[in-house]
Amino acid sequence: MKGILIKLIGGFFFVADQNKNIYQCRIRGKIREKIYPGDYVEIDKENMILENYYPRNNLLKRPKVANVDQVVIMHSVKDPDFTPSLLDRFLLLVESSGFEPLIVINKIDRAEAGFKENFVEYQEAGYQLDFISVKENKNLDQLFDKLNNKINVLTGPSGSGKSSFLNKVIEDADLKTAAVSKKLKKGVHTTRMVELLSLPNNGWVADTPGFSSMAKLDLEIEAEDLSWYFPEIAKYNNDCKFNRCSHLHEPGCVVQQKVESGEISVRRYQSYQQLYNELKERERKY
Predict the structure, then answer these.
(1) Domains assigned to the chain
(2) How many CB atoms lie within 10 A of CB 3?
């Protein structure tokens, strides 16, 4: 029988069939280190043995989830406060892994008037944004529609409201939630493992560990390729005077001209500079 692996706990592998019936299985052979939630697998239903797995379409490496259709990056307007540089790092992580990001901004019920101005630079860069309030059920239906019939990965900073959101979208999910530390203004980690949770339709969503920071860039990209992951910069990559222009100091750099004219966000460009220098420093060390 073919099914989808939804979680691994100890030596047990939990597999769902097409009707979302769950089977607790043991595993045969040496494949236990080769499979992850999201993988389609073959099980011996009579003996409850996971025997093999099917070729996957993709693999998100952090956290490890297979056959991902969409990565939802949730941030909050307040508690914790929105940090653009942190969102930039999440976007880089997602896009460098080959996935399309969907940005969700939660807790708009706590936002001040005109708060959407802080996100214009992302919309101008071409990203999808959904503004929601889990607490007040604002704009949730339109977001639910985007999760239908997909394997979704939900990620973002600790305290942004991921578990509270899943408690709304998944009946009887009853996920643990934790109050944001008022002293540190950072989220408290509540998710400890990757698990695919069943949506009311044919979809799945993986709740992943939250991050209070992403200080370390654990990416398999080189500094010279960074510009391809900033959409507003990438479209000018072939217009500069020099091939492989870093867009930092070269004369005749179109990107720098666009920043000066206001066509590219100064703040986003500064984030690009910071990330570029971090990647270069890492390359020098190795």
Answers:
(1) 2-55 (2.40.50.140), 60-207 (3.40.50.300), 223-285 (1.10.40.50)
(2) 24
